[in-house]
């Protein structure tokens, strides 16, 4: 897929320092952007890359294909919905059980 910018560049994962939800969260202003429409978020950022690990990159739209919620009241609701969708669709790279 052709990305609108380098997933590891300044607009992407900042030299591979930011992965997954961190890339999504940096697109949001916690005070200004909520409540947030999932549709509007995907319309604005859907084609942008999100690095999941050192080799795998998906689009914001790929992640949001699994998000069931239409709107998020706050950043916590956003993270919960996106995290759930990522875990359910094999886009979550952290093995929580390994650290329990």
Your description of this structure?
The protein is 33% helix and 10% strand. The protein has 100 residues and is of the alpha+beta class. The strands form 2 sheets. A two-stranded antiparallel sheet has the order 1-4. The protein has a two-stranded antiparallel sheet with strand order 2-3. A hairpin with a 5-residue loop joins β2 (49-51) and β3. It starts with 19 loop residues before the first helix and ends in a 12-residue tail after the last helix.
Proportion of residues in extended strands: 5-15%
Number of strands: 4
- Which structural class is indicated by helix and strand composition? alpha+beta
In spatial order, strands of the major sheet run 1-4
Helical element count? 4
Terminal residue distance: 37 Å
Low-confidence stretches: none
